[in-house]
Specification:
With about 220 residues, the chain is an alpha+beta fold. It folds into two domains: about 110 residues, no CATH class; about 60 residues, no CATH class. The chain contains four helices and eleven strands. The strands form two sheets. Strands 1, 2, 3, 4, 5, 6 and 7 form a seven-stranded antiparallel β-sheet that branches. β10 and β11 form a beta hairpin. It starts with about 30 loop residues before the first strand and ends with a helix.
Length: about 220
């Protein structure tokens, strides 16, 4: 039996380093870091790059804002180039060897651009970048709160998957932005009304998480 104490089972756990029991227990304090469990990792979770020393880089808290799979051209079963997921495990399960699991990550920054002046100017913003799924698991750990849950910085409600589908064209929008989806729906709706291009007279459907949010029935369908 390992001499290390399992945070879930104490001395009765034979493999405390690999224990995946997710029942929350009281930790000694906030800011604990542990290996990432793909089934628990979701939007808003805080991760930190693994450090080989005691020091930490400035602005080391990174927040996950997107998880998606970029499909290869070999995937004949997929209508879109990429699809979004809520957990890393869902994305990894859906991806095949030729696909890429990608996480969009952001971190805030704040710099003084004129530190020697009496009134310094401040440069602030958010750095946004992408990390491959396997790289994330190898090089990062997740930050855990005192309750045992993953730390989560969510400044807004969870994101939803939005799609716009046009008659014989297929999916013309597939992303997480409601604003972008409704703008695209409006454009294709007008094109259908005006009978312009391939969208002329076609049905235009706005979908949210697989459910119809709004629909325009084109003249091609009405005439059938």
């Amino acid at each position: 039996m390992s001499s290390r104490l399992c945070k879930y089972h104490g001395r009765t756990c034979e493999f405390p380093g690999q224990c995946l029991n997710r029942a929350p227990r009281k930790y000694e304090g906030d800011g604990h870091e542990e290996r990432i469990d793909p089934e628990r990792l979701t939007l808003g979770n805080v991760i930190r790059r693994i450090s080989r020393s005691e020091s930490r880089p400035a602005f080391s808290d990174n927040v996950i804002i997107g998880i998606h799979v970029s499909y290869s051209s070999k995937r004949k079963d997929k209508r879109t180039d990429k699809e979004h997921f809520l957990t890393l495990q869902e994305a990894m399960s859906d991806a095949q060897s030729s696909d890429y699991v990608v996480l969009t990550v952001v971190r805030p920054y704040l710099y003084a651009s004129n530190v020697f002046g009496s009134i310094p100017n401040w440069l602030q913003g958010i750095e946004r970048y992408e990390v491959m799924g396997n790289t994330l698991l190898d090089c990062h750990k997740v930050v855990v709160m005192s309750t045992g849950e993953y730390a989560c910085y969510m400044a807004r409600e969870p994101l939803y998957k939005w799609e716009v589908i046009v008659g014989n064209i297929g999916t013309v929008y597939d992303d997480l932005s409601e604003q972008g989806a409704r703008a695209t729906f409006k454009v294709y709706k007008e094109m259908s009304k005006l009978n312009e291009g391939r969208a002329g007279g076609e049905n235009v459907t706005l979908m949210c998480d697989g459910e119809i949010a709004e629909e325009y029935i084109g003249t091609e369908t009405i005439g059938e």
